[in-house]
């Protein structure tokens, strides 16, 4: 599984946990993890844009 696919799978799982009803502490932790995943995805995306055709 690629890094992007792994991050997207983790994001989906966290989104499902968030929607299933969580306590305030768990919600904060999930939102923190989601922010980290978004940052990682953005970095990977910008890296792909910076070097097109290098695969």
What attributes does this structure have?
mainly alpha
Quaternary assembly: single chain
How many domains, in number, for the residues?
A: 1
What is the helix/strand order? HH
Strand count, sense and barrel status of the largest sheet are: none
Total number of strands: 0
Helix content: over 70%
Rg from alpha-carbon coordinates: 14 Å
Poorly predicted runs are none
Which geometry do the CA atoms define? elongated
Averaged pLDDT: 88
Q: From the helix content, strand content and strand pairing, which structural class follows?
A: mainly alpha
Total count of helical runs of at least 4 residues: 2
How much of the sequence is in beta strands? under 5%
Distance between the amino and carboxyl termini? 16 Å
How would you describe the overall organization of this protein?
The chain has one domain (3-49). 80% of the residues lie in helices and 0% in strands. The chain contains two helices and no strands. It is elongated. The chain starts with a helix and ends in a 5-residue tail after the last helix. 0% of the residues are buried.
